[in-house]
What does this fold into?
Amino acid sequence: MNVFKINKCPLCGKDQFESVMTCKDHYATGEPFEICRCRTCGFLFTQSVPAENEIGRYYESPDYISHTDTHKGLMNRVYHYVRRYMLGRKSRLIKHSCGLSRGYLLDIGTGTGYFPHFMQKKDWRVSAIEKSPQARAFAKEHFGLDIDTPETLGTYPDKSFDAITLWHVMEHLEHLNETWETLGRILKDRGVLIIAVPNADSFDAQKYKEMWAAYDVPRHLWHFTPSTMQQFGAKHGFILTQRRPMPFDAFYVSMLTEKYKKTPCYVLKGMITGAKAWAASLAKKDRSSSMIYVFRKKQ
It folds into this structure.
């Protein structure tokens, strides 16, 4: 198997790493993967994951939330209820951050198309990118959306978009720095870049350690914290203007973690931990299970 081995830290460029933990792929294969930390800047990453052209089989499961539309099971019903609520919150965040009621939006990693469809109904001109052929087909069939493939990202003209969004996508991207550079090129000077990722400094990450479901190896290559996310933005010419917690994620991630642990009554146990994590994020938002970061280009 071809692997993507990290020899230099994508954040600081140094090559001194330490092993932090070994996590299991609970979702697809049961294989172990090592999470390492850069000794210089502290950035966390999954080492020696399957290369981009081979990782597809690690996404092959009928209940992979990001790329299916199943409502079977309590976990999926909870997810879809929260998604409906979050569509409105995302729309309002974009409007507030941009100062625009409509404009040009690019959504990267759009899944089955619910978010771009919602934003189209808000009169936004939407482009979207999705890797999964099945998800693109679903978006076309149900919403009439023509979703672009990832190769299209580099072909968009300079300064094309008022807003670019990546909802739980950046942690998957092999070409991390190249993506940041492209985002800076295609974003308008007064545009906003909105990124949501799991938070490896969160209450639930610290509680569950190597069992934390949001490590999601090997699909998640990168494990961001508020500090490292701000550093990545600065490295590529962005200023972090807002950090917002995603309180619902702690409930879902905690329930999924308890399920992986084979805990009896895992939903109840996960809800209890999720409530504790939510309370912790009220006291300090940087302890939220996932974070939303809003960036602007340096002028």
User: Anything to note?
Assistant: DSSP finds eight helices and twelve strands in the chain. The helical segments are 74-98, 114-121, 133-143, 176-186, 203-208, 226-235, 247-260, 266-283. Residues 207 and 273 are 9 Å apart (CA to CA). The mean pLDDT is 92.
